[in-house]
């Protein structure tokens, strides 16, 4: 017990140290946009942030002083996360944290430490472990989170979606409901990003202001990702049928090989299916991580449809669920009509 407490204290100290480094390096975005020490593409992307913040306010998201500063953070990630599953399982083994409850992942500012912990879990615990780089995270409104350089690396569409995703977390967070929280943030972030670029185009009225992606391209990219998500869910279902089989390892390898061949042939609009198939991370632990984000996307789409596409109404509904600590499953089972979350109840499942 003493050893365990010592390790826990060391881990939380590590998180505190990393967070302090981020806060210490912050520079107001108003200054960063004109700072010649930053590359031109960085300064151009930072000009989008105020527009995203104003758009998020219009949607009803909690914005406050979030994303008013910039951190020139090195590398391709802010945090490295690990997800673990037991041998032959497709479900993550969660960790428990104060205030947020159980989460399926554990994050480290130190990539070496994360990879060492992943190896320890494999060697001593027999776990399958998925190690992933994360470009952004939310402190759930406790701190004023900054924009970081890793958030800019994938371009304007990814930046806008990421900011809106994280602001959903800062607005409403159901304790111990990691799958629901990540799924609803991903869905709202995607739909809000499409609307953001549509409004930019209407405001520009055909006049080109900067090399931003069109709303059509953003929508098509998100549609591609949804197709990939649906395929991933279906593949995960195939693997679940192998549970308990003594020859699971052999059958799983064969199933994964077939899945990659099928994935390479998915008719995508803007993404490269063959490249995605080649680099897709289809281990048990990585499928568990993907499931956290994508499992409920179709159900969220049905909720939005029941609200006649009113994203503001969906965010109001989400806020209500968090404020009243309602069970997440009822979010899907009792969608409403109209824009008010208090309106009538109609089952759709």
3D structure, described in words:
The protein is mainly α and 349 residues long. It has a domain of 54 residues. Helices cover 56% and strands 9% of the residues. The strands form three sheets. Strands 1-2-8 form a three-stranded mixed sheet. Strands 6-3-7 form a three-stranded antiparallel sheet, with helices on both faces. Helix 4 crosses helix 7 and helix 7 crosses helix 8. The longest helix is centred in the middle third of the chain and has 27 residues. It is globular.
Secondary structure blueprint with pairings:
Layout: H1 2-24, E1 27-28, H2 29-32, H3 40-46, H4 49-59, E2 69-71, E3 79-85, E4 95-97, E5 101-103, E6 106-108, H5 111-125, E7 128-134, E8 147-148, H6 149-152, H7 156-171, H8 178-204, H9 215-240, H10 248-263, H11 273-279, H12 284-294, H13 297-306, H14 311-323, H15 328-333
Parallel strand pairs: 2-8
Antiparallel strand pairs: 1-2, 3-6, 3-7, 4-5
């Amino acid at each position: 017990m003493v050893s365990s407490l010592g390790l826990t204290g060391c881990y939380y100290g590590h998180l505190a140290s990393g967070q302090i480094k981020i806060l210490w390096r912050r520079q107001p975005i108003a200054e960063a946009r004109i700072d010649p020490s930053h590359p031109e593409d960085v300064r151009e992307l930072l000009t989008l942030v105020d527009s995203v913040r104003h758009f998020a306010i219009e949607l009803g998201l909690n914005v406050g002083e979030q994303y008013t500063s910039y951190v020139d953070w090195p590398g391709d990630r802010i945090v490295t996360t690990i997800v673990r599953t037991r041998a032959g399982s497709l479900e993550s083994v969660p960790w428990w944290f104060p205030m947020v409850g159980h989460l399926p992942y554990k994050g480290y500012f130190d990539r070496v430490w994360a990879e060492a912990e992943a190896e320890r879990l494999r060697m001593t615990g027999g776990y399958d472990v998925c190690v992933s780089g994360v470009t952004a995270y939310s402190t759930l409104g406790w701190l004023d989170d900054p924009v970081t350089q890793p958030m800019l690396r994938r371009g304007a569409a990814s930046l806008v979606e990421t900011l809106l995703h994280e602001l959903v977390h800062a607005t409403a967070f159901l304790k111990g409901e990691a799958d629901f929280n990540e799924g609803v943030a991903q869905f709202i972030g995607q739909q809000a990003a499409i609307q953001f670029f549509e409004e930019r185009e209407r405001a520009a009225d055909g006049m080109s202001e900067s090399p931003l992606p069109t709303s059509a391209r953003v929508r098509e990219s998100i549609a591609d990702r949804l197709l990939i998500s649906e395929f991933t869910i279906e593949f995960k279902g195939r693997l679940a049928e192998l549970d308990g089989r003594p020859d699971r390892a052999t059958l799983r390898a064969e199933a994964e090989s077939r899945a990659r061949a099928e994935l390479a042939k998915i008719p995508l609009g803007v993404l490269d299916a063959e490249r995605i198939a080649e680099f897709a991370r289809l281990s048990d632990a990585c499928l568990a991580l993907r499931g956290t984000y994508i499992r409920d996307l179709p159900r969220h789409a049905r909720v939005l449809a029941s609200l006649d596409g009113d994203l503001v109404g969906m965010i109001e509904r989400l806020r209500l669920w968090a404020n009243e600590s309602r069970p997440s499953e009822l979010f899907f089972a009792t969608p409403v009509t109209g824009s008010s979350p208090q309106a009538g109840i109609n089952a759709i499942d």
